[in-house]
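dude i think i finally got it to work??
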Amino acid sequence: MLRRSRADAAPDEPEDRLPAERPAKPAPVPAPPAAPSVTLRPLRIGLNMLTATFEGEILLSSEEAMEDVRVSLHLMAASKDEGQAIAALHDAPIGRTVVPAFGLAPGSARTVRGIGVLAREATGGLEAAGRPLFVPLVAVRLGWRDAGGVHHLIQAFAVGVERVDSPKLAPIWLDQPARSYEQIAARPHGRPMVRDAAIVGER
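look at this
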C-alpha cells in the first residue's frame, strides 16, 4: 500500500483563524439644524390716497446660535403672481433692515418692530362680488450665519381684519373711505422658504 509523501499531503489548517474584518459602519450624518421660528404680530395697517402702510412686530426664536441676523419686512398684495413675487426676494439683496444686525444665543428669542409701505395703485387687482379689495401679504426675510454657513429664510403672512362672527379674516375693501385698521391679525401664508447664501450669491 503506497503512502503519500509529506509534500503531497494536504496542508495543515491553521489552528487560530482570524475572523474576517467587517466593514466599518459609516458615521451617522448629523441632522441639519432646525430653521428659526418667525411669528408676526400686526399692529396697524392704514391706507391713504397714496400708500398702504403696515406696522407690526416680528418674533424670532431659534434653538441654534445665530450671528449677523438681518431682518427685513416687505408689504405686497395678494395676487395670482404672489408666489413668484415672494420667491424673487431670495434673488435680491436684503437691503435695508428693520434693525441693525444682531446675534441670537441658542434657545433665545427677540422681538423687533418693522414697517412696510406699498403704493396705493399696487393694492388692487382682486375683486369679490364686483367690489375691489386688498389682501395684504407681509413677507419677513431673514439672513444669518451659523456653524453651517450663511442662510436665508422667507416667511409670508396674510393679514386681514378680525371678525366677530367668523375665524376667517376679512379683506380691506377699497371702495370704502381710506382709514387705519388696528383690529387685525396675521396667518402664515405657505411654508418657510430656506436657502443657502451660495444659491443667491450673497454673503
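The first strand starts at residue 37 and ends at 47.
im so relieved honestly
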